[in-house]
Amino acid sequence: MSQIPELAGGRFFTPPMAVGTTTISATDFSSSSSDDALTSGTNCILKMNPTSIAGQKQVQGAILLVSANAGSDELVMPPVGQCNGMVLYVINKTANAIVLKFINSSGSIATLAEGETTVDSNEIATCLCDGSDWYGSIGTLT
Predict the structure, then answer these.
(1) CA–CA separation, 75 vs 100, rounded Å?
(2) 63 in a domain, yes or no?
(3) Is residue 65 part of a domain?
(4) How confident is the model at residue 13 (pLDDT cuts 50, 70, 90)?
């Protein structure tokens, strides 16, 4: 059966997302971001639109390959209002922990609503957004 009626009127099955990966290196984490007052340490705030601000990175694919600094860097998911139905996969490529957070509907940084929030070395997090919260599930890479 055709899926054309379901796509009529500009509706999408999921938020539009380029197929591929987004590489987040240690240099993408910054303590000088314009949103720095929202977090306690170094952070990388994910954005859905292009950005050139230190500590921010545009999401260009659903798979996020992350290389964090020593300590617990914070990876902040995009704002919930822009991500209803979105799924992101966070792969930690270093021995350093990554703490997952998100920007809630009031514009504040919050920890994920349910599930684990720290992605350790050689772990993958599946992050889901329902339009009001981000949720996470963490497993081991094999």
Answers:
(1) 5
(2) no
(3) no
(4) very low
pLDDT digits (tens, 9 = 90+) for 68-91: 887 778 899 988 888 888 999 999
In a domain, 61, yes or no: no
Contact 124, 138 (CB under 8 A): yes
Check residue 3 and give its pLDDT. Answer: 52
Task: Please state whether the predicted TM-score (pTM) of the whole model is above 0.70.
Answer: yes
Residue closest to 90 by CA, chosen among 14, 22, 26, 5: 22
13: how many CB neighbours lie within 10 A of its CB? Answer: 8
Q: Which residues contact 129 (CB under 8 A, 6 or more apart)?
A: 77, 80, 83, 84, 85, 86, 87, 102, 135
Q: Which domain holds residue 31?
A: 4-55+73-137
**CA angle at 30 for the pair 46 and 45, rounded to the nearest 5°:** 10
Tell me 50's DSSP state.
-
- CA 37 to CA 108: how far, in whole Å? 10
In the chain, the number of structural domains is: 1
Q: What angle do CA 31, 33, 39 make, to 5 degrees?
A: 65
